[in-house]
Design brief:
Elements: E1 5-10, H1 18-32, E2 45-50, H2 52-59, H3 66-80, E3 87-91, H4 97-108, H5 111-115, H6 118-126, H7 135-138, H8 140-149, E4 155-158, H9 163-180, E5 188-191, H10 219-226, H11 248-256, H12 259-271, H13 276-302, H14 307-333
Parallel strand pairs: 1-2, 2-3, 4-5
The chain binds tryptophan (TRP) and iron/sulfur cluster.
Iron/sulfur cluster binds at residues 231-232, 235, 242, 244, 247, 249-250, 265, 269, 274, 276, 279-280.
């Protein structure tokens, strides 16, 4: 079995919601736990990090919130089963080598590659409450490339929205190897298969939209969020027939309910045999039950105030060692080694 180095990061957005869990974390867990019979250390070698510098590309106005968001997010990772004994969990800004490599990569990255990045163009057009016309924001994928290749990662699990960034990372890596000699493996994108999951208002689940159900939401909050959830607008009255595929409640059923319940929803919705409140009420306990082990573990973890720092300190050291070794090579490749 070839042991792959897997690396991925998340911006510290605070407490994680169901979209993060099914969209990213579940996949990280799979990769971490691949070949469950192998003894510890024989699985993929996983690196998961908090991309706090990336958060600054958009939150430079208000950096003070980032710290709390880091702890909240790392606690959620640990509660979900990301295991610091098996995976290296670290903080981007604690490993300064990312910044040095970012600088060097910025020398060889054509502006046109960055300017035509679809994510960049989209965000510039959409985000109105922040000025994103900055050098740092344009260079977001260059920093992301440094994050990846400074560990010579082979595979990067990300959602489809990150695919253009990864494509750029491969291009920048190829250009480096071409200019200075074969130094880095080209990182492969591991596209995460994600179940369709929408927020309570039918839009994409996002903290910013105020439509998210968080992994740490207690049972009464979950109930309060599900009951008024948007449904298929065709079901105005109880007798109106609906289409489950047009309803965000249905997509949650698909994730959290048994096959029988899903069939009951599909049939009952199409025939107006069930009402939306009934449908939602059958969903609530299954979400609560599914989150229970996570929340129990979370309760235990928050009793240990140093846990996040301890985990990050240990991971930072491991990450740093690798990043330092890579940078020695990089400086040599660029003839930047000065001997005194
Ligand atoms: N841009 C990623 C996101 O928003 C986070 C990220 C930063 C990342 N650096 C990375 C992901 C390196 C994978 C690899 O989700
Ligand atoms: Fe949605 Fe269920 Fe109502 Fe159908 S019955 S519209 S799936 S809440």
């Amino acid at each position: 079995m070839t042991r792959k180095r897997v690396l991925s990061g998340m911006r510290p957005s605070g407490k994680l919601h169901l979209g993060h869990f099914h969209g990213v974390l579940e996949n990280w867990l799979k990769l971490q736990n691949l070949s469950p019979n192998a003894s510890i250390g024989e699985e993929n070698e996983c690196f998961f990090f908090v991309a706090d510098w990336h958060a600054l590309t958009t939150e430079y106005n208000n950096p003070s919130g980032i710290k709390d968001n880091i702890s909240d997010m790392v606690i959620d990772w640990l509660s979900a089963g990301i295991d610091p004994e098996r995976s290296t969990i670290f903080l981007q800004s604690a490993v300064k080598e990312h910044a040095e490599l970012h600088l060097l990569l910025s020398m060889i990255t054509p502006l046109s590659w960055l300017e035509r990045n679809p994510t960049y163009k989209e965000q510039l057009a959409e985000v109105k409450d922040k000025d994103l016309h900055t050098y740092g924001f344009l260079g977001y994928p260059v920093l992301q490339t440094a994050d990846i290749i400074v560990y010579k990662a082979n595979a990067v699990p990300v959602g489809i929205d990150q695919a253009p960034h990864l494509e750029l990372s491969r291009e920048i890596t190829r250009r480096f190897n071409f200019l200075y000699g074969e130094t880095f493996p080209e990182p492969q994108t591991l596209l995460t298969e994600t179940p369709k999951l929408l927020g309570t208002d039918g839009r994409k689940m996002s903290k910013g939209y105020n439509n998210a159900i968080f992994l740490s939401d207690p049972p009464d909050v979950i109930e309060k969020k599900i009951l008024p959830m948007m449904t298929d607008p065709a079901r105005m009255k109880r007798m109106d027939k609906g289409t489950p595929e047009k309803c965000p409640v249905y997509f949650l059923h698909r994730i959290y309910s048994t096959t029988e319940t899903i069939a009951w929803v599909e049939e009952g919705c199409r025939s107006a045999g069930i009402g939306c409140i009934e449908c939602k009420k059958s969903l609530i306990p299954s979400i609560i039950k599914r989150l229970e082990p996570f929340q129990k573990k979370r309760q235990e973890l928050i009793k240990k105030p140093d846990i996040v720092n301890d985990v990050l300190n240990k991971g930072n050291k491991k990450a740093k060692k690798i990043a330092q070794a890579t940078m020695e090579e990089v400086r040599k490749a660029l003839r930047l080694e000065v001997r005194g």
